[in-house]
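Feature request, filed as a ticket because there's no other form

It would be nice if the structure record came with a short human-readable summary line next to the tokens. Right now we just get the raw output. Example of a typical job, pasted below so the devs can see what we mean:
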Amino acid sequence: MDTQNLSAPARPQQLNPRGITHINTPHTTRYTVVGNHLAQHRQLSLNAIGLALHIQSLPDQARVDIKTLADRFPEGETRIAAALRELKAHGYLAQVRKRLPNGRVVTHTVSYNQPQAQHPESGPAPAAPRTPPRPASDDLPAPAPLTDPDPTPEPDPDPTATPPAPPPSPAPKPSLPEPQTPDLDRHRTATALLTTLHHDDPRLLLSERAVRHLAPAVAAWLERGARIGAVRHTLTADLPEPLRNPAALLAHRLTELLPPPAPATPPLPHGNRQPAAPPPFLNCEGCERAIRTRMPGTYCRECREAGLVTHDAAA
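Raw output as currently delivered:
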């Protein structure tokens, strides 16, 4: 009678009238053990707790940078970066920087299932030195410290030696050009140009995110007087083989090949004065022909040569 029948159906669990009722099924594969110190953390946000759970469930050498996590989850890069900062501040995540033999500095990400009381940027805390065990009897003398009987002093550093030069820092990536004045029609034209580039080359089929990122740069070209056909030719001509990242190539061309601003309006003659207006048209008193003159009752040259000018008009 004391043998349990494992095939017997389990009794239905009574639901709690208030609060939550847990119905737990034991896991045998694909599970991660997480402490309640993380799941019920009082200071971490729900976004940071969920991200910590995801990171602890990943295998070693998995990528956990901001771009990779933003492609995996619907949260944007801003919220993911804020959650990573929370986990670093509370000791669940750390970044260790190491210098390779070639001088390059790489960053390793370390995840802790128990919070570590250390600076987020430092590595794991070093182990405390082990002390030798005390002798069983207090009558025995204490062992003498282990010292070198003939220590060799280290040579003083040469003050004239030149310290090794630090590795050159990478040049900052230039930002995309932007228009000086916002114009909705110009922005729509730039967006239409980018979304139809794959008509010239199928490899230039851009994502919606890439179009939003590059549209202000194309609008800056149009603002500087560049025609749509010239911009399209600049972006689609002489494409490399193979084309691995079309959005990055277009961003490089829009930045490096940006035309200069359109020249300003030429200055007015005689300084800032407007040019004098020509005389108005008036009819000749002799032949009714239209002539340019500022004085009414004037005769044209033919009437003056023919002698039709009266003495009153001549006077």
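Something like this underneath would help us a lot:
The first strand starts at residue 93 and ends at 99.
Residues 184-256 form one domain.
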